[in-house]
Write a structure and sequence with these properties.
Length: about 190
């Protein structure tokens, strides 16, 4: 009985109306604030920064209203040091203003790689292994040997052992066996020279 009497009172209906009005106002304020903070509907087309320097990108931040973060740096033979070689998000996509761009920049120093063991490999196998390590094959000298395999490997004119670290992109010269075991020595030019 008490509940029935309370529901029929003016105070109950007044409080219910106040709660409804406050709820509606809060919903509209929340929607308004979300539209402002999330920049709903505002998009920019992502420009391509590949090949440009970080200084150029820094000058563009105010024009396009974004932030950039250098995520990584890597060595790339085809790119000048300090230039951008990759970006996220990709060029041409549409993003909201104020978005963060993640950039990968080319470094000037190549990473060090371990020299693989080329001894007793055929020339073709040695070239394939060098390619996977990012090392170039230089001059090949045919030397007297029973097998047609790599006899010795050189870096800057000195014998280099497997496991020694050298800069990626370095050139290695090879002594390869003639297969006949004779006394002849013959130079074979690198087809990459």
């Amino acid at each position: 009985m008490r509940l029935r009497k309370y529901i029929l009172k003016f105070d109950f209906w007044m409080q219910l109306c106040i709660i409804a009005v406050v709820t509606i106002v809060l919903v509209f304020v929340t929607i308004f604030v979300l539209r402002i903070t999330t920049r709903h509907g505002e998009k920019i087309k992502v420009p391509s920064f590949k090949g440009y320097t970080v200084e150029y990108v820094a000058n563009q931040t105010s024009k396009f209203d974004f932030e950039y973060i250098i995520r990584d740096s890597t060595y790339d033979v085809t790119s000048a040091p300090g230039t951008i070689i990759a970006q996220i998000p990709e060029a041409g996509s549409h993003v909201k203003k104020g978005r963060k761009f993640y950039l990968t920049v080319a470094t000037s120093t190549p990473p060090l790689v371990k020299m693989p063991n080329l001894h007793d490999l055929s020339l073709r196998q040695a070239e394939s292994l060098l390619k996977t390590y990012g090392i170039k094959r230089g001059r090949v000298t045919i030397v007297p040997s029973i097998g047609k395999a790599v006899v010795e490997q050189y870096y800057k004119g000195k014998i280099i052992a497997a496991g020694e670290k050298i800069p990626q992109g370095s050139t290695i010269t090879l002594d390869v066996g003639s297969g006949g075991g004779g006394d002849e020595r013959e130079n074979v030019q690198n087809d990459e020279d």
